[in-house]
Amino acid sequence: MMLDFRRWIQSIATVLSNAWLLFPFTGTIYQGKLKSLCVPGLNCYSCPAAVGACPMGALQTMFASVRPSFRAGNFHIGLYVIGTLGVIGSLAGRMPCGWLCPFGFMQELVNKIPSPKIDIPSFLSCFKYAVLAIFIVALPIFAVDIFGYGENAFCKYICPAGTLQAGIPMSFLQPRLRDLWGGLFMVKMAILLFLILSMVFIRRPFCRTLCPLGAIYSLFNRVSVFKMVHHPDRCVRCGECYRNCPMGVRFYEGANQNNCIRCLQCMRKSCKYGAIGHSLSAAPSKDTMPSGGASL
Ligand code: SF4
Ligand code: SF4
Prior knowledge:
By secondary structure, the chain is mainly alpha-helical. It has two domains: 5-216, no CATH class; 225-280, Alpha-Beta Plaits. The protein has helices at residues 5-17, 23-26, 55-64, 66-71, 80-92, 95-99, 102-110, 127-142, 153-157, 160-173, 183-201, 205-209, 212-218, 240-244, 265-270, and strands spanning 226-230, 276-280. It has a two-stranded antiparallel ribbon. The longest helix is centred in the middle third of the chain and has 19 residues, at 183-201. The site of one iron/sulfur cluster (SF4) has 14 residues, from helix 14. One iron/sulfur cluster (SF4) is lined by residues 228, 241, 245-247, 249, 251, 260-266.
């Protein structure tokens, strides 16, 4: 069967984000100039194959440096990451999650494993905003060590992409790192395994409930230049869009919901009635915006 266009883009983005193929010989991560640029999806900086920086890692580092910089009399904060996310979000909203994020792609592939599929209550979508506020912003700023430096709390305590892409492979590349495996590593392995198991039964569980990058992009969905459009006059509320949506969004309840990753699957493959489209417009969407994801 022909791989569809989005699958091609997801595959290419995953390969391009992880194109440093010399790591088996160097035994360490790539640290060239490209590493100063952020990739648009969640892709661990410390993955031995990664060629760019993860925007969430970079954002935590930015917040962690705020207090030491201020204390040293330096009131300049590097706004490169916020600017990058702002530009991408303003243009496309959460589209990078649907087309460019390697970890999102992996969740869709795992969900292809034949199994009963279940859905999750919509209120769980709110947790990703708490993760963003606590682990990306508050803890890096306020949980400082004796030298006044904050820590990258999301990377350290939660990120399953980091465990999968960096923790596990680096332990094989540098066996001495296994001596550092402790309770925290085991907790992170448990989080990763729980999420992988969840992916079999639930559509993109990490993106919907925990991903702080998705939380940031989702804030732009209603105001980005690219928008989804719903034509209620043509919609018969058959629910086909919901059944085929990789995020479990009920499109017929409103376009541009925070969980819509603009994958266009509903428009291209699900709706036979022409009720789904998209537009380029600077005006904010007037659609109602439920959180999405509840069962039909
Ligand atoms: S598939 Fe089309 S007609 Fe059916 S509920 Fe979705 S938008 Fe409405
Ligand atoms: S609502 Fe449509 S465009 Fe949005 S994530 Fe679901 S299938 Fe993709």
